[in-house]
User: Which sequence fits this backbone?
């Protein structure tokens, strides 16, 4: 699974705003066990009702903004249920031109809260689509953390199909197991001139030691938006193997007197391991700061991950 944009056709604004996600408790999978699992899931979600239209406006740069629209969604497939979504959108319509090049883009970020009998889910959905000369792409991610009866479970998924009022998702349901180990990891990344991020990490707990780190980011929001969202795919590697995790959450820009700083916070999930880490499972909270991080390029990211892990 990758955050790299993938070519996609037929995704319009109606589809992007028609976001969805609802999942009923999978209590049977959350029972006591000693083996962590990753299970494929596929589900389709359809807009039922918009219960709050939110606030919308077009700014002086011609960018459309939507904030706080509340939607109710119905989900069918491997998982069924309903969800309440708080939707935010930044979009520049096709026809805006810069230096005789016309382009369009849309970014969406959604706070997802699912309340079900005995449990629920909470997380973030992020999408980005662009229509550039000779190229179109669309990328999205949703990261959900189980609550109540779903505690110890996570879902990471991306859309694979869609229409004006639905999206179909495929992804992975991860279920943790006991005994748990702590996970405390700090990462320093620097951006090159093409905004590729690489650096290193130091970690204690289930992942012990240090090594190299690379990351990809998916940003929802525009340069004119101070409160937005961010998803990331982070790979940590050393001589024994690698660990790949993803996260999604809120971001906030702060313009300080002497510098610019961006803060991000959200939930991370280990989605894959290789070598000695092939059977490592984990999840937890992530906090990141972007800005002048002592990098030669003048821009970098520091990430702190605190959570729990299990090794099968």
Assistant:
């Amino acid at each position: 699974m990758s955050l790299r944009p993938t070519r996609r056709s037929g995704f319009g604004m109606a589809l992007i705003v028609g976001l969805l996600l609802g999942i009923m408790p999978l209590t049977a999978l959350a029972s006591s066990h000693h083996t962590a699992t990753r299970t494929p899931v596929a589900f389709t979600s359809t807009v039922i009702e918009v219960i709050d239209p939110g606030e919308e406006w077009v700014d002086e740069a011609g960018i459309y903004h939507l904030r706080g629209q509340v939607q109710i969604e119905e989900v069918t497939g491997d998982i069924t249920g309903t969800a309440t979504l708080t939707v935010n959108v930044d979009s520049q319509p096709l026809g805006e031109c810069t230096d005789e090049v016309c382009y369009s883009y849309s970014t969406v970020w959604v706070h997802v809260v699912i309340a079900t009998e005995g449990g629920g889910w909470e997380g973030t959905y992020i999408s980005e689509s662009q229509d550039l000369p000779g190229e179109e792409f669309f990328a999205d991610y949703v990261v959900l953390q189980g609550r109540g009866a779903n505690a110890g479970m996570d879902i990471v998924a991306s859309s694979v199909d869609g229409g004006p009022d639905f999206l179909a998702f495929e992804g992975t349901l991860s279920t943790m197991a006991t005994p748990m180990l702590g996970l405390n990891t700090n990462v320093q990344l620097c951006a090159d001139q093409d905004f590729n991020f690489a650096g290193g990490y130091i970690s204690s707990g289930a992942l012990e030691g240090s090594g190299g780190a690379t990351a990809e980011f998916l940003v929802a929001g525009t340069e004119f938006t101070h409160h937005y969202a961010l998803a990331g795919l982070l790979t940590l590697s050393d001589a024994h193997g690698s660990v790949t995790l993803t996260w999604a959450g809120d971001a906030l820009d702060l313009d300080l007197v002497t510098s610019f700083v961006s803060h991000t916070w959200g939930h991370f999930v280990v989605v894959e391991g290789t070598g000695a880490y092939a059977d490592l499972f984990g999840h937890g909270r992530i906090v990141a700061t972007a800005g002048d991080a002592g990098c030669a390029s003048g821009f970098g990211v520091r990430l702190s991950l605190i959570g729990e892990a299990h090794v099968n």
